[in-house]
Amino acid sequence: MDSGDRFEDYTDNELMACTAAGYKKAYEILVLRYRREAQNYCNSLIKDPSWAEDIIQDSFADIYVRRKDYKDEFSFRTYLYAVIRHKAIDHLRKNGRLRFAEDRFPEALGMETESPEEKYLQKESKDQMVEWIRELPQNQREALYLFCVKGMSYGEISGYIKKTPPR
After folding, report:
1. Contact between residue 54 and residue 32 where contact means Cβ atoms under 8 Å apart
2. How far apart are CA 89 and CA 42, in angstroms?
């Protein structure tokens, strides 16, 4: 392949392989191919076009940085949407809007609505999980609390725990 190849005719996975090999133009084609669709998807999750734009840029940048780790087991679109979804949920958590989004748009966040039977089984599982959490050592319970309740990232939790003296 030489730099004169017509990347526009390549499949998404071929473009990612070329990107991993150092062809920036191949990745530019992918970004142009999916930018509008990605923007619409992200905006449907967070309902804020300016933040959606930031999340999209960050998602594409992360994928590019990790281009050599890309596995073509799934379509590029699936991979891109997963990255966007995770970043959108992190954004909602950090801004205290995740509970609102879960309640109002469960299907947009990939959450299923359950039947009464499913809700009962889920409550049973939740009760068991609470019991398991109570059995964890204090530092692990604290890390779990910081992640799930406070919405901190792994890096933030690590920094917090390193600064907190042991008890």
Report:
1. no
2. 10
Amino acid at 7: F
pLDDT at 65: 94
Contacts of 33 (CB under 8 A, 6+ apart): 12
The CB density around residue 152, as the number of other CB atoms within 10 Å, is 19
Sequence-distant (≥ 6) Cβ neighbours of residue 161 within 8 angstroms: 139, 142, 143
* Short-list 84, 87, 63, CA closest to 15: 63
Cβ proximity of 29 and 15 under 8 Å:
yes
Q: Is the pLDDT of residue 84 over 80?
A: yes
Whole-angstrom distance, CA of residue 56 vs CA of residue 35: 8
| Residue 52, C-beta contacts closer than 8 angstroms, at least 6 positions apart | 39, 42, 43, 45, 46, 88
